[in-house]
Specification:
mainly alpha; transmembrane helix; transmembrane transporter activity; ABC transporter involved in vitamin B12 uptake, BtuC; two-stranded antiparallel sheet; cell membrane; transmembrane
């Protein structure tokens, strides 16, 4: 027996059971003739204290096998403790089995454990600093892309337009300066706001279809037919305010939505392209209006004019200008601003909220990206097509209402046409976002308003149409190039992440081997 301060005698060390043997390294067996340590190194535990040569040889062979097993066990299960035990055993038994074989085996050091103060294990890429994350958000795949692409398109189109002006012999700088001077006058600002209101509603109607990869070319026919029937109804029925205004607005929304629903139903039931069907519906709407806009049907001739129009909407059904509110907040304008301008703003806000924060908006986007994936997730792609066309047509029905209830009060042959096609351009330029659509609407309204002043500097007003066409082509080309660039950047980012993951996996596999 050993005292409290004595070194333990190897002969007194108890032999552990075979199922709970302590791990050891090669060469960590006991000295020759030490039967108890030979039993501890072997898994069978059959060595005895006899010290016979045959048993020593068996113990040596068993030591080699158990040393290999123990090495893997010590690397997988124990770090500091097993390493110290293996080091101690090898130090005491190196003169034993190692000397018997004529060579000394140096034990392999254990893997450092970060929890025990060892070297840290290499992790993935370090987190990006906040300022770099902000710059990345402003980069080619973030806010910079959304702002830079339309700005680049406008600059390119402006450059092409100035080249065309120079080719016609005009001074491009003087032409642009005249447009800016005329467009910033107060009466021009009122006209620009009123034009932009209609352009905005038209672009939102188109953007709803774009969100589901549907091209609603029929916005032009939908808003004209809706405005005509709503004007006829409002002129025939006199209701007190605000019921008269509500009647006209609801009628326009219903007519526009139902007319667009025809294209949606044809697409899901007969596979007819919405582009083809809406173009045909535009022609049909034009024919219906021409047939009904007659003094023998739903119209009456205007005095001292060759024009015909629907019955005038009474005062109880009209919407007053917004100038009173603007004057209250310090904005004084000489002309009448459409009183339904807030309606257009509300439509844009509702569109943004529904698309980004509702289940319907999610279903709409996923159905446009992949109808099969939407179908697999329980979303009826056919139903979404019809609903989207109805929603687009309903908003299209509102396009002519601000001018109908705030300016003309009837539908005549001079009612504005072509607003639906302008909305397609505005929606493309605004990237189908309400804020971008608002800016694009103001730009196109500015170009239309200032086109007449170009004649004073001997520039044909048709150059504005050329400029708008160049904007459309430039926007399409630039957005396609930017889209391809964004895909290429995403592919590079994914490849870099995969390479980092493979490196980490390779290092982890090497550390455990």
């Amino acid at each position: 027996m050993t005292g409290p301060t004595d070194t333990p005698d190897p002969d007194d060390t108890p032999t552990p059971p075979a199922d709970h043997e302590a791990p050891s390294k090669p060469g960590a067996a006991s000295k020759p003739g030490t039967a108890s340590e030979a039993g501890a190194a072997s898994k069978s535990g059959a060595a005895s204290e006899s010290g016979a040569a045959s048993e020593q040889d068996a113990a040596s062979e068993q030591d080699a096998a158990s040393g290999q097993d123990a090495a893997s066990e010590s690397g997988a299960t124990s770090k500091s403790g097993a390493a110290s035990e293996a080091g101690a055993a090898s130090g005491s038994g190196a003169s034993g089995a190692g000397a018997a074989s004529g060579r000394v085996e140096v034990p392999r050091p254990a893997e450092p454990d970060p929890s025990e103060g060892g070297a840290p294990v290499k992790q993935g890429p370090e987190p990006v600093p906040s300022w770099k994350a902000i710059l990345r958000g402003l980069g080619p795949t973030g806010l910079g892309l959304k702002i830079g692409a339309p700005v680049l398109a406008l600059l390119i189109s402006l450059g092409i337009t100035m080249i065309l002006l120079r080719l016609t012999g005009a001074d491009p700088v003087s032409a642009v300066q005249s447009m800016v001077d005329y467009g910033t006058q107060q009466h021009s600002i009122v006209d620009i706001i009123n034009r932009a209101t209609r352009y905005y509603l038209s672009a939102v109607a188109v953007a709803i279809g774009f969100r589901m990869a549907l091209l609603n070319i029929g916005v032009d026919g939908q808003y004209r037919l809706a405005a005509f029937l709503a004007a006829a109804l409002g002129g025939a029925i006199s209701l007190p305010a605000p019921f008269g205004q509500i009647l006209v607005i609801v009628a326009a929304v219903l007519v526009g939505g139902l007319w667009a629903a025809i294209a949606g139903v044809l697409k899901v039931t007969r596979g007819v392209s919405e582009v083809l069907s809406t173009i045909m519906l535009n022609a049909i709407a034009t024919g219906v209006i021409a047939y009904l806009l007659n003094d023998k049907r739903l119209a009456e001739p205007r005095p001292n004019s060759n024009d015909v129009a629907t019955a005038t909407i009474p005062h109880s059904g009209r919407v007053g200008p917004l100038n009173g509110f603007l004057s209250a907040i310090g904005i004084n304008l000489p002309g009448a601003v459409y009183g339904l301008l807030p309606l257009a703003i509300v439509v844009g806000i509702v569109f943004w909220v529904v698309i980004n924060y509702t289940r319907f908006g999610f279903d709409l986007k996923i159905s446009g990206l992949s109808p099969s994936a939407a179908q697999a997730s329980g979303v009826s792609a056919k139903r979404m097509i019809v609903v989207t066309m109805v929603a687009s047509g309903a908003v299209a029905g509102l396009i002519g209402i601000p001018g109908l209830l705030g300016e003309s009060y009837d539908y005549s042959l001079n009612f504005p046409a072509g607003l639906g096609f302008t909305g397609i351009t505005v929606a493309l330029l605004g990237r189908n976002h309400p804020a971008g659509i608002a800016l694009a609407s103001l730009l196109f309204a500015f170009l239309d308003q200032t086109s007449d002043i170009l004649q004073e500097v001997e520039v044909p007003k048709e150059i504005v149409g050329v400029m708008q066409g160049v904007v459309v082509l430039t926007v399409v080309i630039v957005y396609e190039l930017v889209r391809r660039w964004e895909i290429r950047l995403q592919q590079r980012s994914v490849a870099a992440e995969l390479a980092t993951g493979h490196d980490l996996a390779r290092e982890a596999a090497g550390s455990t081997s």
